[in-house]
Structure formats: structure tokens, C-alpha cells
Design a protein that fits this description.
Number of domains: 1
Helix content: 25-40%
Radius of gyration: 21 Å
Shape: globular
Bound molecules: adenosine-5'-diphosphate
Distance between the termini: 21 Å
Number of strands: 12
Number of helices: 8
Largest sheet: 9 strands, mixed
Order of helices and strands: HEEEEEHEHHEEEHEEHHEH
Organism: Gossypium arboreum
CATH architecture: 3-Layer(aba) Sandwich
Protein name: Kinesin-4-like protein
Strand content: 15-25%
CATH superfamily: Kinesin motor domain
Family: Belongs to the TRAFAC class myosin-kinesin ATPase superfamily. Kinesin family. KIN-14 subfamily.
């Protein structure tokens, strides 16, 4: 009926507006049970639209807590389905927007699976990083009569507040161009096909693993960031558009019990806490439209400064594990995420 058409059009318009403003979206994904633990009962009681309900049994009886996000993906959702929901955001990089996507959650909750994929990587289970670049190439090709796009990538790791270039070859930084760099002193590599991307991702993962052998799976305690720089030239007007996208696999968000760790491990934990709370503070302060945004409180927020706030689009992608022994971390992850999300959901309610 006409009424429903109007409603539908309003909804579309509303979504477009939401899509355009410098907003923060929050998605949540639940990892499936790993096979050896499939006899466990999931703490996830119910998922519907953007709502997730977690059962919180205690000695006083059965309880539950619900959280609301822009999207919630259950255990059976595929990599392709997850990506299709992020596609518009990624495509806006070609229109000159800056985009930031964070994978947040405790170690083992599926952050790397979402961003990169599993160890036995196939085309079907590739994560966001591969799909995002593949998609940019497809779209750039479609627009080739009107635009010429150049794409270049950087890959870095932040560990204990130190930035490490992951695309070094034989210890050398490769800087083939100097435009639009906001990660100084890290190799910037041009890419023009998915196979270029696969080669570089492999190089980055090899370089990342070099540090890991020395420090026992340090990858869960460092942030890794794939930055994609896109420059588009409008072939009729000659106008140059620049967009940039950061795809960040954050360090595990688990709280470390101070009494259990000392020395290097404690220092790592303190650095992780510091940078994750700095990220939370930046997001909160952007949301409150504060004039002073505390970007300089961590390496992570410093590096992402151009891509957080303003016209930039941010997606916080939180991950949770379904096992009962992860319950405390699951609740704390969802609370952090909800603090980030309230901002946007609050604004959305005003518009409804
Ligand atoms: P994190 O990066 O948060 O530490 P991982 O991505 O390494 O966690 O995930 C932990 C394990 O669970 C890995 O073996 C990974 O392949 C598996 N896993 C995570 N998410 C999924 C998923 N959606 N489907 C299948 N396996 C998954």
C-alpha cells in the first residue's frame, strides 16, 4: 500500500542519513563452540535483530541480561554474510571517506577470524581484510570510465606502545609513495589485485610471527592494523578524492588479575588496558562533542586520529565466546560495547 511505501522510503532515507553522518556503529558476533567443547551450554540465550540476551546464572538463581547493538551475528553466520553487512561502509572509502573498523573482545573470541580468517584459509572463509580489498578493486573497475583509483596498504603492529612495520622486507622499509601517510616510517605498498593483497598479508603475518616465537603468542597482546589508502582521480574534473580505511584487530580485552602476573606480562597488560581505555575515552568524548578529544593518550588513538570523529565512519565489532567460563569477560565486553553504542542509538531515537 501507499502508506507502507512511504514508510519504506522514510526508512531508506533514515538509513542513508545514518550512513552519512560521522557515526559509530556497533556489531556483535558470537563465536561458535570449538569442536572439543561442544558439550557446553551456551551463555547466549537469545538473539533477535540487534538484541542479544545472555543468561547469567548465579547462586541466587537464573538471571539474564540483554544488550542492544546495530547488528548481532549468531554462531552460524558465515564470513560472507558478515561482510555483506559491512560492504557499504567499506565502499564509502572510494567516495573519499575515512573508515575505521575495530575487532574487540577477549582472546579466543574470534577477532582474527573475522578480520583475517582461520589458519586454513580458503576463499570461502576469508575474513574482512581480504574481502574489503577485493571489493574495492571490483568497484574501482566498475567506475573506471570516470575515476582512476590508486590503492596502497600499510600493516603495522602496536606492542607495548611501540609501533612495528609488518611489511618490511630484509629489514628495509619500502616507501614507494609519500601521499596521505599517517603512519610515518612504515612501508606503503601499492596493490592492484587480490593476489598482491594475499602476498602482502602473508608477508605481514610472517613478520608478525617473528616476534611471536620470542615472546610466546604476543599477537593476542598486540594490536594489528591494516591501513588501506585510496586515491581517486575524477577523470573529467581532475579532482582528487582521498579515503583511508583502518582495519584493526585489537589486543585481547581480558582483564588480567594483577596478582597472577608480574614483570613483562604485567607491563603488557597495563599497556593494553591503557590503549583500550584511551580508545573508549576518545569515542566517548567524540560522542559528547567535546572540543578536546584525548587522541594523544595512546599510540593507537594517535595513529587513528584522522579516521575517528569528524566525517569518519567507525565500526566497533565486538566478539564474544559462548562458553560459561567466559561469562564474566562476555558481560564486560558487552558493557564496554554498549557504552560505545549508546551514543549512536541515543541519537537515532531522537530521529524516530
Ligand atoms: P581472537 O583473535 O579473538 O583471539 P581467533 O580468531 O583466533 O580469536 O579465534 C579463536 C579460535 O576460534 C580459532 O581457532 C578460530 O579459527 C575459531 N573461530 C573463531 N570464530 C569462528 C567462527 N565464526 N567460525 C568458526 N571458527 C571460529
Amino acid at each position: 500500500s501507499g502508506y507502507h511505501r512511504v514508510l519504506e522510503e522514510n526508512r531508506k532515507l533514515y538509513n542513508q542519513v545514518q550512513d552519512l553522518k560521522g557515526s559509530i556503529r556497533v556489531y556483535c558476533r558470537v563465536r561458535p563452540f570449538l569442536s572439543e567443547r561442544s558439550s557446553y551450554v551456551s551463555t547466549v540465550e537469545h538473539i533477535e535483530d540487534g538484541n542479544i540476551t545472555i543468561s547469567t546464572p548465579s547462586k541466587y538463581g537464573k538471571g539474564c541480561k540483554s544488550f542492544t547493538f546495530n547488528k548481532v551475528f549468531g554462531q552460524s553466520v558465515t564470513q560472507a554474510e558478515v561482510f555483506s553487512d559491512m560492504q557499504p561502509l567499506i565502499r564509502s572509502v572510494l567516495d573519499g571517506y575515512n573508515v575505521c573498523i575495530f575487532a574487540y573482545g577477549q582472546t579466543g573470541s574470534g577477532k582474527t577470524y573475522t578480520m583475517v580468517g582461520p589458519k586454513d584459509l580458503t576463499e570461502k572463509n576469508q575474513g574482512v581484510n581480504y574481502r574489503a580489498l577485493g571489493d574495492l578493486f571490483v568497484l574501482a573497475e566498475k567506475r573506471k570510465d570516470n575515476f582512476r583509483y590508486d590503492v596502497a596498504v600499510q600493516m603495522i603492529e602496536i606492542y607495548n606502545e611501540q609501533v612495528r612495520d609488518l611489511l618490511v622486507i630484509d629489514g628495509k622499509i619500502h616507501n614507494s609513495s609519500q601521499t596521505g601517510l599517517n603512519v610515518p616510517d612504515a612501508s606503503l605498498m601499492p596493490v592492484s589485485s587480490t593476489s598482491d593483497v594475499i602476498d602482502l598479508m602473508n608477508l605481514g603475518q610472517r613478520n608478525r610471527a617473528v616476534g611471536a616465537t620470542a615472546l610466546n603468542d604476543r599477537s593476542s597482546r598486540s594490536h594489528s592494523c591494516l591501513t588501506v589508502h585510496v586515491q581517486g582521480k575524477d577523470l573529467t574534473s581532475g579532482t582528487i578524492l582521498r579515503g583511508c580505511m583502518h582495519l584493526v584487530d585489537l589486543a585481547g580485552s581480558e582483564r588480567v588479575n594483577k596478582s597472577e602476573v608480574t614483570g613483562g606480562r604485567l607491563k603488557e597488560a597495563q599497556h593494553i588496558n591503557k590503549s583500550l581505555s584511551a580508545l573508549g575515552d576518545v569515542i566517548a568524548s567524540l560522542a559528547q562533542k567535546n572540543t578536546h578529544v584525548p587522541y594523544r593518550n595512546s599510540k593507537l588513538t594517535q595513529l587513528l586520529q584522522d579516521s575517528l570523529g569528524g566525517q569518519a565512519k567507525t565500526l566497533m565489532f565486538v566478539h564474544i565466546s559462548p562458553e560459561p567460563d567466559a561469562l564474566a569477560e562476555t558481560i564486560s565486553t558487552l558493557k564496554f560495547a554498549e557504552r560505545v553504542a549508546t551514543v549512536e542509538l541515543g541519537a537515532a531515537q531522537v530521529n524516530k
